[in-house]
Amino acid sequence: MTSDIKAALRRQRIETPSWAYGNSGTRFKVFAQRGVPRDPYEKLADAAQVHRFTGVAPTVALHIPWDKVDDYVALAAHARDLGVAVGAINTNVFQDDDYRLGSVTNPDAGVRRKALDHLLECVDIMDLTGSGTLKLWFSDGTNYPGQDDIRARQDRLAEALAAVYDRLGEGQRFLLEYKLFEPAFYMTDLPDWGAAYAHCLRLGPKARVVVDTGHHAPGTNIEFIVAFLLREGKLGGFDFNSRFYADDDLMVGAADPFQLFRIMYEVIRGGGYTDDVAFMLDQCHNIEPKIPGQIRSVMNVQEATAKALLVDRDALARAQADGDVLGANAVFMDAYDTDVRPLLAELREESGLDADPMAAYRRSGYAEKIVDERVGGTQAGWGA
Ligand code: PSV
Ligand code: MN
User: Fold this and answer.
1) 228: closest CA among 187, 250, 200?
2) Cis preceding linkage at 183, omega within 30
3) Cis peptide leading into residue 37 (ω within 30°)
4) For residues 197 and 233, is the Cβ–Cβ distance under 8 A?
5) Nearest bound ligand to CA 91?
6) How confident is the model at residue 136 (pLDDT cuts 50, 70, 90)?
7) In this model, does residue 272 exceed pLDDT 60?
8) By the 8 A CB rule, do 13 and 85 touch?
9) pLDDT at 384 over 60
10) 381: DSSP letter
């Protein structure tokens, strides 16, 4: 049993986002931190540290144009030299003045064309970097009732998605991300999993839904969404983070570790604990140091996964079949209440890693090194 769990944990892969290593903040203030990367090459170097100490974070998501470079083949080679690889290519059609009234749903055909060209360019970048995943998130929506035609905007969205879908090559797919609100405050064109699912269903197997854990109304049962999408073969991955209020982008497992456990249980139960589902972080470390923030997040996902793997599924199935409400709940809670940290420490040591990735990173001197070396230049930030 323990050896099966360990084998499953050894297989785990968690993708870190390039933007987590840059400066970030809220609309009130971005706090600069010393040693922050100045370019995508340095972001990859920091991401490689997370992999070095956890052993389970071998890919890095890029965000275009934040990670725009002249030579993507060279960037991918640089990643490989560092022991990591380029992961999902995240599109960005939300930071240009032209997108005030939307990107692919904009009433202006010229703006729609510009947005679509960007999405297609991101598929070119997938070709160059060897990435198999395109992540689509649209800030599109309206602020006032009557501002635009809700249905016509769906038509425009469907048209753009179909064009991107048709451009995808062999072994490539897109993940469609929904979000309840923000930056649009009245109506969002892809507000929930149902809308994302319907678009993906029409397009075919290369289109899947991605669940960003911060993109729901408070109280939403996210594990239900996970179970449902997996059952339909439409769960493409996660953007993990945690939230207390809205889309807070805090460290995953920090606000609600029990929710993360419940999600991971449904992933495992539904056969989603495979490479077919991308486990990505989408976070910002506004006040805490970034590399340790990512290491902690990766460890939080590992802990939730270990607990989910510990659920005695046979005992649970028996209790469920018997209608034993309290018994079933006890089986579930037993797993959640188990301290899995010793198991994970043992597993790391068996894999030649330090039992305590946070302490090992601190001792490595990397944080001091980047502060000394990264002098001058412009620090990367959310949006650059
Ligand atoms: C939007 O809030 C989002 O979750 C999308 O994934 C963006 O690409 C990302 O945040 C940027 O941090
Ligand atoms: Mn996201």
Assistant:
1) 200
2) yes
3) no
4) no
5) 1
6) very high
7) yes
8) no
9) no
10) B
Q: Which regions of 170-249 does DSSP assign to beta strands (E)?
A: 173-177, 187-188, 207-212, 235-240
Tens of pLDDT, residue by residue over 294-316, are 999 999 999 999 999 999 999 99
The alpha carbon of 371 and the centre of ligand 1 are apart by a number of angstroms equal to: 28
What is the per-residue DSSP string for 120-181? HHHHHHHHHHT--EEEEE---EESSTTSS-HHHHHHHHHHHHHHHHHH--TT-EEEEE--SS
Return the sign of the alpha-carbon dihedral for residues 187, 188, 192, 198.
Answer: positive
Q: Could you identify the residue written with the tokens 């899947």?
A: 208
The two tokens of residue 283 are: 């976070």
- Size of the chain in residues: 384
Nearest residue CA, atom 6 of ligand 1? 137
User: 350: left (phi > 0), else alpha (psi -120 to 50), else beta?
Assistant: alpha
Q: Mean of the pLDDT values across residues 234-258?
A: 98
Token pair for residue 103? 């990107």
Q: How high is the pLDDT of residue 383?
A: 60
Q: Which domains does the chain have, with CATH numbers?
A: 11-373 (3.20.20.150)
Average pLDDT over residues 227-237: 98
Residue (of 353, 381, 322, 343) closest to 26 by Cα position: 381
From the CA of 237, the nearest ligand is 2
Residues with CB under 6 A from ligand 1: 19, 90, 137, 177, 179, 212, 239, 247, 282
Q: What is the pLDDT of residues 12-33, one digit of tens each?
A: 999 999 999 999 999 999 999 9
Tokens 């991107």 map to which residue? 164
